[in-house]
Amino acid sequence: MKERRKQPEPPSGENTVERAYAYLRDRTISFGFLPGERMNEVELAAALEMSRAPVREALNRLIVDGLVAFEPRRGFFCRKLSVTEITELFGVRADLELAAVRQACTVASQPDIEIQQTRWKAVETKQPEMGIDALVGADEAFHLGITTLARNSERSRFLDSINARIRFVRRINLEDQGRRAASIGEHSAILDAIAKRDADRAVTLMHHHLSFSSEEVKSRIHEGLARIYAEEVT
Fold this sequence. Notes:
Blueprint: H1 16-29, E1 38-39, H2 41-48, H3 52-64, E2 68-71, E3 75-78, H4 83-107, H5 110-126, H6 132-149, H7 153-175, H8 177-195, H9 199-210, H10 214-233
Helix pairs in contact: 1-3, 2-3, 4-6, 4-7, 4-8, 4-9, 4-10, 5-6, 5-8, 6-7, 7-10, 8-9
C-alpha cells in the first residue's frame, strides 16, 4: 500500500448487477473508498452508466459480504476497520484452514496435490520479481487451493469472503521481506506434508503459519490506516 491503487474501470457485460458488484467489491477491497466513507448511489450509478437499482442490489450484496454497512436515512458506507472484527476473522480463517488441511491429507488425489505443488514452485521461482499485489494474489490462491484439495466448496466460499476482508493485513505482512521469505518456505512444507498424508504435521505447520496475535493485528490495522489516509492527502 505504498501507492494508492488506480481505480478499476467500470466493467462491461450484460448482467448489470454483476458488473456493479464486481466493480464496487474491488474498489472496496482496494480502499478506493476510505473506511467509513459514504457510497453515493447516484454518483456510482452515473459512473457505471446504469440505473440505481442494480447499484443498490450490489451494495446490499456487499453488506452480506461484510464490506459495506447501511445506516437508515443516511445510506451506504464503506466498512470501518475494527481490531476486534479483524482478529475474529483471523480466528475463523484458522478454523477453516486447519480443518481443510487435515481433510486434504485424507481426500485429496495425488495428481491434484502435485498440481498445487507445481503451481507453488512456479511462484517460488518468480516471487523475487513479483509485485506485492501479485504476491498477495498468489498467497490467497495457495490457501484456497488447500481448501480445494479438501473438496469442500462451502468452506472455500467462506474463506474467499474472509480473504477479501483481511487482504490489507495480509498485504502489509507480505511487504516484510523476512515474513515474505518465511511464508514461501512454509507453503512448500505444508504441501509436502499433505503429499505424505501426514495430517498431524500438516496441521502443526499450518497452525504456525497462521499464528497472529491480537497485538500484531492491531499494529497492522493502524499501519494500514496510516498509509490509506496518507495516500489520500498526497
